[in-house]
Structure prediction request, 387 residues.
Amino acid sequence: MEHLHQSFTVQYNYNVFFTSALFSPQNELLNNFLINLNPAVTVKKILFVIDEGVASAHQGLIDEIKAYFSKYDKTQLVQEVLIIPGGEQVKNDTRYFDQVLEAINVHGIDRHSFVAAIGGGAVLDMVGYAATVAHRGIKHIRIPSTVLSQNDSGVGVKNGINYFNKKNFLGTFSPPVAVFNDELFLKTLSDRDWRSGIAEAIKVALIKDAEFFEWLEANARALAARNTEAMNYQIWKCAKLHMEHIRSADPFENGSARPLDFGHWSAHKLEYLTNFEIRHGEAVAMGIALDAVYSNLSGRISTADAQRVIAIIQELGFELTHPLLQVKAGNSPILDGLEEFREHLGGQLTITLLTGIGSGEEVHEIDAEILKQAAEMLNNQTAIIQH
Prediction:
């Protein structure tokens, strides 16, 4: 019998803006963006969803937003700003997802209107998912408030929530219409949260850009000491590298390879095993250390390169490992993370390991004995020995 075939391409465009004091009356950036996007649409609304940690740290934020849209009134602000918890709990409990959908419904947010989320990566993930599934896709705007979300998750195309005790089991690939990185949100972060996001910079430098890794080495102390100029460059460079990867590779992850998840297979599992007491960036730092030592022991990188990776992780104040990352005979909980990672990717297991500073390769199996040795070396903080 004859059959019909259909093929089409959908183009996605979005900007990542870097600014300071986004809601200052003198800052026209957000207003100009809103009125210039689909200018023929005469009635546009915008609903704000804010991480309660951000609202608490910036107590005048809601009043600033209302004053901003009072001055720039071409876009109608929904006066009821939705405040939700931050952190992984907002992705674990579907009632927060339901709250966003209810607000979209009650306030008549349509496909020509906007849902703007201000918060860390978890809040952006959840709100983006709710916006994407409501009316088959409402425009969402991300305003990341953490280092991790400004340099990594906030500039990507993924949204999701956790389900069946699995990270991002439900989700979509749907880019925001814009990302606004405001440096002022970073000033109220704890030292722990400031540092956490830098792990993603180490990751992307190790697999993409040796020169950037050298910059991180030279500026690790300044970053740890909360130097704003160093942090602003680190965020810009990370965002640039992540966006270049999304454009040039496999943005919707139809294949099994995900190099930007270097160090993540164990990190995701460790987050769950610790009930998210370990921050994502902290878990990623430990995952990078584990995979870097494994890369050395399996003959892929030199001892000197592995030691450089360990040194920068320590210089930034991260722990190298955790008791739950130790590999035991046959029943180690962290080994379950390999199968869960494979399932999440689809197809065969694909892990990125280092072949040098700034380069990696895909492998499809992990040797449990080498992994055990790498974990033990990190636990004992013994010298890395060329294998």
Summary: The CA atoms of residues 121 and 186 lie 13 Å apart. The mean pLDDT is 91. Residues 228-248 form the longest helix (21 residues). The longest strand covers residues 166-173.
